[in-house]
């Protein structure tokens, strides 16, 4: 469960003309991820016996995976997870006044001194293994919101 993020994409989807009907020019980002939704997800996960972790997500542009020095740096600045999505979508959602719950499936631990070449088949297998629990969690969340 994402509790906060660091935007290292080098981009912000709000750059450019702002349509005030969609949200303010300078939206508040003091709580990008809704604490009540985080607590609800945590409670449901406990009840459903689904293992979860909470942490800070760092958004990068990709499309390459990171090198060992980058993983060390990211850990140093507070990253618990790294990905190429989510952050810009959250910025737009918050700009529009939407409550956000961020969840991510960790497919690889990315330990800098033990990095192995990326094996997409393995990443897909990990995601497929997590999918039933994630689907169960999301269905309960949607019923209880």
Helix and strand pattern: EHEHEHH
- DSSP helix fraction: 25-40%
Principal-axes geometry comes out as: globular
- Residue runs with pLDDT of under 50 for 5 or more positions: none
Strand content: 5-15%
Rounded radius of gyration (Å): 17 Å
Protein name: purine-nucleoside phosphorylase
Enzyme class: transferase
Organism: marine sediment metagenome
EC number: 2.4.2.1
How would you describe this structure in keywords?
145 residues; alpha/beta; Rossmann fold; three-stranded parallel β-sheet; 3 strands; 10% strand; transferase; Purine_phosphorylase; glycosyltransferase; purine-nucleoside phosphorylase; Nucleoside_phosphorylase_d
Give the arrangement of secondary structure elements.
Elements: E1 2-7, H1 35-47, E2 55-59, H2 68-76, E3 81-83, H3 87-95, H4 120-144
Parallel strand pairs: 1-2, 2-3
Helix pairs in contact: 1-4
Please characterize this protein's 3D structure:
This is purine-nucleoside phosphorylase. It comes from marine sediment metagenome. Belongs to the PNP/MTAP phosphorylase family. It is an enzyme of class 2 (transferase). One of its GO terms (molecular function) is purine-nucleoside phosphorylase activity. The protein is an alpha/beta fold and 145 residues long. The protein has one domain: 3-Layer(aba) Sandwich (Rossmann fold), CATH 3.40.50.1580. Helices cover 39% and strands 10% of the residues. The protein contains four helices and three strands. It has helices at 35-47, 68-76, 87-95, 120-144; strands at 2-7, 55-59, 81-83. The chain has a three-stranded parallel β-sheet, with no helix packed on it. Helix 2 (68-76) links the parallel strand 2 (55-59) and strand 3 (81-83). Helix 1 crosses helix 4 (120-144). It is globular, with a radius of gyration of 17 Å. The mean pLDDT is 96.
